Amino acid sequence: MLKSDRSLQIMDHSVKNRMLPNDPLVKCFLHCMFDMFGLIDSQNIMHLEALVEVLPEELHNTIIELVGACGTKKGKDGCETAYETVKCYIDVNGKFIWKQMVSLLG
């Protein structure tokens, strides 16, 4: 099984159970996803506020709340940074984050 297949399997299980496992594959999956959407830069700084440009207006306040509360939670590398930041997002507004994950992952 490819790492990407395993990552998707783990993320699918994570979303269904509303838990974010402390797993290197999950951490790097999150980094890859943020990178793909242009939400993390080469310095591993999160730019969730970029979503305000593409998401419906009714979600803007939630995005601004998450950015204000969490910013970027620095880890030892990009994968760890993405993971720690998502953990903060879940702590601040888990209902919103899990709903978005379900939308992204199906």
Automatic annotation (TrEMBL):
Keywords: Disulfide bond, Signal. GO terms for molecular function: odorant binding. The keyword Signal applies. It holds the Pfam family PBP_GOBP. SUPFAM superfamilies: Insect pheromone/odorant-binding proteins. GO terms for cellular component: extracellular space. This is General odorant-binding protein 69a isoform X2. It comes from Drosophila suzukii (Spotted-wing drosophila fruit fly). The gene is Obp69a.
